[in-house]
Structure formats: C-alpha cells, structure tokens
C-alpha cells in the first residue's frame, strides 16, 4: 500500500483525481468502480472540474457501484443509484445507461446480488476502484466479520453504520437495515484501488487497515492482500499510523 498524507481535503481530492485521470487517459475503454458516501465527493468534484475545464473525457468509461440499500423506493434521494448521478456521473460525459448498481428493489435480493457480481466479471472486471471506509473499518457494506473472500450479497448493516449514515436521512429509523454489497473478494479483484478518508473518526480504521493484522474484524485490512492500493488521508485520519 502506498499511503499519501495530505494537508487538506482539496489536496486529497487532487491526489485521487490524478489516479483517476491516469487510468481514464491511458486505458481506453475503462471500467470504473465508484463509491458513495461523503469521502469521495471532493474527488468527484475535482474530476467534474477537469472534465469541464481541461477536457477530461469519460465517454469510453462505464461504472459499477459498490453497493445499494435494500428497500428504498425507486428514486429515493438517498439511494446510491441517485447519489452517484447527482454527485458525479450526470455532470460528466459518461453514458448513463452504463452506470450500473445493484437493484435494491429486486424481489430476490440474493439472486440480484449474484447477477450483479457476474455482470462485473462479464464487463472485464474493474480497472480502478475508489473506496471510502466506515469508522468500524467497513469497505462498501462489508461489516466486521465479513469473509475476506466474500462476493456480492445481501448484508445486514450494523448499528454503528446505521448511526453513521443516519445523518443523510430524516431519522435513524429511516435508514435501511439491509443492503446489497460487493464482497471483499469482489472488491479485491479490481486491478487498482484508491481509498480516501478524512477526519479523526476514521483514524483507527485506517491504522488497522494499513498496519493491523489481516482480519475480518477490520474489513479494510483485506486490502493489504492487494498489489496496487493508494491510500489518501488527511493528518487526522492518518493520526494513528
Ligand atoms: C457507507 C458506504 C461506504 C462508505 C462509508 C463511509 O456505508 N457504503 O462505501 O465508504 O459509508 O462513508 P463516508 O465517506 O460518508 O464516511
């Protein structure tokens, strides 16, 4: 893992955007793995700026989201399907039909998860995956205890993740308790990964991810098994390294 400690969110956004730009410019038709949550937003804004001002094009790119809540009504403002469009893909020249996510409204969530997992492989796999990390170390929605080899599947969110994400909803009771999430095994198949985090509440998860034992207790530590990971953190998130 390469760890880059940045002075502030703006510098972090430029570092992450640089990784994206290298892959998007060099690789021709590219498969991007996109994350939701607040951590990647500054990087997405920087990429939108580069698209508008510097002609960075995503016309040859397609995208797979990491995860989706189960049971939110279609178009719900907190669905990740909507989030990624509002915060990134509708502001660049990526074909909307090629921005894919698990269907959180599917009648059979396990079958939908398996279908989604297969579709990533059929697209040739992910060239670059961006990740955030939960304060309990979760990656996508792989909560502590998730198998390091797990595939896309229905998952039950922990109380701490529901509490963390309640800030996006009207109340804690409105946060779904289930999600469909790429597994740690799925995520680790991406050819390159960039993970970004800011703030002191991520410091322990970052330290366990980078320096702890590889363990399902801290799902981020699975990334130690990956050959090409860049971690971009501010000083607060890196403070326990
Ligand atoms: C959610 C997402 C994760 C994300 C995490 C951290 O649970 N499923 O992909 O990394 O939250 O979110 P934030 O970046 O808002 O701290």
TrEMBL record:
Q: What's one GO-annotated cellular component?
A: cytoplasm
Pathway membership: Amino-sugar metabolism; N-acetylneuraminate degradation; D-fructose 6-phosphate from N-acetylneuraminate: step 5/5
**Molecular functions (GO terms):** glucosamine-6-phosphate deaminase activity; identical protein binding
Gene Ontology biological-process entries: carbohydrate metabolic process; glucosamine catabolic process; N-acetylglucosamine catabolic process; N-acetylneuraminate catabolic process
SUPFAM superfamilies per record: NagB/RpiA/CoA transferase-like
Keyword presence, Transmembrane helix: no
Q: CDD domains annotated for this entry?
A: GlcN6P_deaminase (cd01399)
Fetch the HAMAP family from UniProt.
Answer: GlcN6P_deamin
Name of the molecule in the record: Glucosamine-6-phosphate deaminase
What organism is this sequence from? Answer: Brachybacterium muris UCD-AY4
Question: Which gene is the coding source of this polypeptide chain?
Answer: nagB
């Amino acid at each position: 893992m390469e760890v880059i400690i940045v002075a502030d969110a703006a510098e972090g956004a430029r570092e992450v955007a640089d990784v994206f730009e290298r892959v998007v410019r060099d690789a021709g038709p590219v498969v991007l793995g996109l994350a939701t949550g607040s951590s990647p937003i500054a990087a997405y804004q920087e990429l939108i700026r580069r698209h508008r001002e510097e002609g960075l094009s995503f016309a040859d790119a397609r995208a797979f989201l990491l995860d989706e809540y189960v049971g939110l009504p279609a178009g719900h403002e907190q669905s990740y399907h909507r989030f990624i469009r509002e915060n990134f893909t509708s502001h660049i020249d990526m074909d909307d039909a090629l921005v894919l996510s698990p269907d959180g409204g599917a009648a059979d969530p396990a079958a939908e998860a398996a279908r989604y997992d297969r579709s990533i492989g059929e697209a040739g796999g992910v060239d670059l995956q961006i990740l955030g990390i939960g304060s309990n170390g979760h990656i996508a929605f792989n909560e502590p205890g998730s198998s390091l080899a797990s595939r896309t599947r229905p998952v039950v969110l922990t109380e701490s993740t529901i509490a963390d994400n309640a800030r996006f909803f009207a109340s804690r009771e409105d946060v779904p308790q289930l999600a469909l999430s790429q597994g740690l095994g799925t995520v680790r198949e991406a050819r390159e990964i960039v993970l970004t985090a800011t703030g002191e509440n991520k410091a322990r998860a970052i330290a366990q991810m980078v320096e702890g034992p590889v363990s399902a207790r801290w799902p981020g530590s699975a990334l130690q098994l990956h050959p090409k990971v860049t971690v971009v953190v501010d000083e607060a998130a890196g403070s326990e390294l």
